[in-house]
Design brief:
single chain, about 140 residues
Length: about 140
Amino acid sequence: MTVDTQELFANLAEKERRCGHHSPEGRAMRMLSRALNGWAAQMLGVYDVIILCDQAIGDWLRARLGLSPWAQSDFTNLLSRAVQQRWLKGQAVAPLERIHRARLEMREGRGGVTHSEAEAGLLLCIDLINEHWQPPA
């Protein structure tokens, strides 16, 4: 991994201590930090990381939009609503759609994601959630 995962994981753990893990961002980051730890320890594969990234982002979007965690909302619709509400930037949409599409394709036995693409997707998701994760007021 091109990033110092131990340092990144330590920073995320410290931020979790300060900001908590009960907010939508905290819950998403908890899942992503576990993915990072498993990835760095080579206990998770490409498909595992893609699933965790997609699940964390989907859950985060539903929570931020005030939807039930079990809502069967179209992922593209969730992204569109987040952009409309101006808490997700338009340039974040395409990479998140790629992660979601990769999960669907891999589940069906089509397509594939390289090791470096999975790692880049994980880091992108961590950066995105980290950008929104603030200490409670």
